[in-house]
Specification:
By secondary structure, the protein is of the alpha+beta class. Helices cover 31% and strands 26% of the residues.
């Protein structure tokens, strides 16, 4: 196996592969080109399909087959969270050596979220400059989420994305009809059902959320990160 440039962690995996007769793979680009595309989002209590492919920020938003001419404030807010909760970069063809296609500088999952935010009309560069990131907590298998902390109008706000079930367990409110409302048990079941429906369609599902933090602009990131690491605050 080594001579064939194959790295195997467990020999039992090779034995299982030897018994395999059919291998099913996707053709979305995840395996072939290491690219991901966000195709669906659930926000404001409705499922929205997103068109477009690869990393070019060109596409539309559709609800039940009808194109959305403009996004609601809640949908823009969700897009802003996706934009800010990222440490990756989206590069235009003019900024690339090849000059042929849009590329990224980092994780494909975060890049797909950035592209979706850009499709919604968010200027990523302008938004990041206006709301500077003062630090972030990388994704951890224990927390099952990552956090970016930004300055928003002089306040400190945490933007979080992670596994839906774990995120939902920490949330106390939900954005519905462009309003923040208390998160009820019935609404939790609705969110879990949407998560299951997307998972059954073979989609990788992430949840996003945000929360203002009780810190002023004068706090250092060292103080913030120490507090956030030990504090199981809701997302």
């Amino acid at each position: 196996m080594v001579k064939k440039n194959v790295l195997v962690k467990r020999l039992s995996a090779v034995e299982t592969l030897g018994c395999t007769t059919v291998i099913c793979t996707d053709k979305t680009g995840t395996l072939t080109t290491n690219e991901m595309t966000a195709t669906r989002v659930w926000v404001n209590g409705k499922t929205i399909d997103v068109s477009g492919a690869q990393y070019e920020p060109v596409g539309g938003f559709y609800h039940r087959g009808v194109v959305l001419s403009r996004q609601s404030s809640g949908e823009r807010d969700a897009g802003a969270v996706r934009c800010l909760c990222s440490v990756q970069q989206l590069r235009s063809p003019a900024a690339c050596r090849s000059g042929e296609r849009w590329t990224i500088g980092g994780d494909p999952t975060e890049a797909a979220l950035l592209v979706m935010a850009a499709k919604g009309g968010i200027d990523i560069t302008t938004r990041n400059k206006a709301l500077p990131r003062i630090g972030h907590l990388p994704f951890e298998s224990v927390r099952k989420r990552m956090t970016c902390v930004n300055l928003v109008d002089g306040s400190v706000v945490a933007h979080v994305k992670g596994a839906p079930a774990e995120m939902l367990a920490l949330c106390t409110s939900i954005l519905l009809n462009d309003r923040v409302e208390p998160l009820t048990d019935e609404q939790r079941q609705v969110v879990l059902a949407e998560n299951d429906a997307m998972a059954r369609d073979g989609l990788r599902v992430l949840a996003v959320g945000r929360r203002p933090l009780p810190f002023s602009e004068g706090f250092t990131w060292r103080t913030l990160s120490g507090t956030l690491s030990s504090w199981a605050w809701p997302a």
